[in-house]
């Protein structure tokens, strides 16, 4: 079974997400910061009347903080039943990944970034890190009964 991914850049790294999760790709627009949110949440933007959180993917993966410019892009994805924006450096292209080129992650111990990845794929000598979008957003803690 093949999958189609949208690939994009964070520095020199190529990442990909399933094309079916993509709702829109839009130019960078500053996010409105919110108080007391995790450091990887840059704030919110208004997308035609829908307010959506914007995740700094570089920060979420533990690779530093993005200093957004007009060249950056927000990819709007559906994670669960909510739209989220993720900041990336640039969108590359659409690739088709045959099932046999998808590989699991090697054992990397407690590597933070590994928990956000579904696997790896090599296409035309390019290593693509395939994101597991559902793992990017933290689940709200379950309230304990008093």
Which features does this protein show?
1 helix, five-stranded mixed sheet, 146 residues, OB fold (Dihydrolipoamide Acetyltransferase, E2P), disordered C terminus, mainly beta
From the 3D structure, determine the CATH topology: OB fold (Dihydrolipoamide Acetyltransferase, E2P)
Termini separation comes to 48 Å
CATH evolutionary superfamily: CheA-289, Domain 4
Q: Which stretches are low in confidence, meaning pLDDT under 50 for 5 or more residues running?
A: 140-146
Q: How would you write the strand order of the largest sheet?
A: 8-1-2-11-10-9
CATH architectural arrangement:
Beta Barrel
Structural class, please?
mainly beta
> Assembly state here?
single chain
List SSEs in N-to-C order: EEEEEHEEEEEE
Number of helices: 1
> How would a textbook summarize the main sheet?
6 strands, mixed
What fraction strand? Answer: over 45%
What coarse outline follows from CA principal-axis ratios?
A: globular
How large is the radius of gyration? 16 Å
Let me know the average pLDDT.
87
Q: Got a strand count? A: 11
Helix content: under 10%
CATH class: Mainly Beta
Q: Number of domains in the coordinates?
A: 1
């Amino acid at each position: 079974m093949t999958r189609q991914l949208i690939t994009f850049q964070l520095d020199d790294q190529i990442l990909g997400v399933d094309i079916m999760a993509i709702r829109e790709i839009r130019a960078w627009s500053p996010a409105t910061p919110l108080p007391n949110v995790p450091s990887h949440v840059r704030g919110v933007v208004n997308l035609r009347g829908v307010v959506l959180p914007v995740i700094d993917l570089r920060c979420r993966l533990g690779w530093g903080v993005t200093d957004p410019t007009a060249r950056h892009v927000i990819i709007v994805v559906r994670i669960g039943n909510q739209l989220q924006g993720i900041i990336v450096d640039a969108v590359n292209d659409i690739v088709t990944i045959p099932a046999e080129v998808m590989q699991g992650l090697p054992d990397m111990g407690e590597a933070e970034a590994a928990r956000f990845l579904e696997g790896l794929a090599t296409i035309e000598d390019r290593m693509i890190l395939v994101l597991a979008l559902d793992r990017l957003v933290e689940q709200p803690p379950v309230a304990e009964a008093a």
